[in-house]
Amino acid sequence: MGPSAIRYAGLAEKIQKIGYPVEDLGNIQVPVREHLSEKKAPGYASEIKTVCDNLYRIGKQIFSKDDFPLFLGGDHSLAVGTISAVTEDSPSAVIWIDAHGDFNLPQTSPNGNIHGMPVSILLGYGIEELVNVGRPGPKLRYDQIVMIGTRDLDYDERGMLRESGIRIYTMREIDDRGIGAVVKDAISYLSPYPEIHISLDMDVLDPFIAPGVGTPSPGGLSYREAHLLMEIISDTGKVRSMDIVEINPILDHRNDTAEIAVELACSALGQKIL
């Protein structure tokens, strides 16, 4: 339902207003979880692999036409497919904007949810069939990704991230330095890479502003912090692709979270105040 909510919020029309043609390729078929047999954790890896393989294939087709893919979710496990596609022919940097680390392994995850594992999978750890989506092996190096807005980590995940070498900008650092300084530092860190993929989980925003997410975490980005984040990244001229994930309209108020997602997408695509 998340992609439908984003479309309903006027994504295509608002992107067209800032000067870009839009082609909506529709939805990839995703099994309804309630219609599947219950599985032991980590569950549904084969179904998620099929979805991510399709995302990989479609993402590569879009890139071959030199177009900009904007992927809508759904949960953050889709990034296994999208980032596999966007890093295939170019060493694209990834800015992972999320309240959570998504760095669990099957043996460390408290609930077995694969949407809490995509970063570790993309770095080559965890469920082998997902590590090998699109092409065999890791899709990212530690110095190819930064995390922004992190604040809600599982116990074992915290230790693994601390030792991983990934540059992580927590909410503490954002509070201390300001979002502008943090984003500029992240962009400088990723400067060796010619392109940027934004992976935006809407739960990075404070749930008071964006309540329609599956795993809300208090103390997130403000409305203006989120826009400034996107605006500064856009100013690099390197943004080549983007994910927007984790919108659950059942939990939302008047589609507010989806509408903010559309606004943030437009900021990432270069919409200016003046």
Please tell me about this protein's structure.
This protein is an alpha/beta fold. It has one domain (2-20, 41-268): Ureohydrolase domain (Arginase, Chain A). Helices cover 38% and strands 11% of the residues. It contains eleven helices and six strands. The protein has helices at residues 2-8, 11-17, 45-64, 79-86, 118-122, 128-131, 155-164, 171-177, 179-189, 223-235, 256-268; strands spanning 70-72, 93-97, 145-150, 167-170, 196-201, 239-245. The chain has a six-stranded parallel β-sheet, sandwiched between helices. Strand 5, helix 10 and strand 6 form a beta-alpha-beta unit. Helix 10 (223-235) runs parallel beside helix 11 (256-268). The longest helix has 20 residues, at 45-64. The chain is globular, with a radius of gyration of 17 Å. It starts with a helix and ends in a 6-residue tail after the last helix. The model has no long low-confidence stretch (mean pLDDT 95).
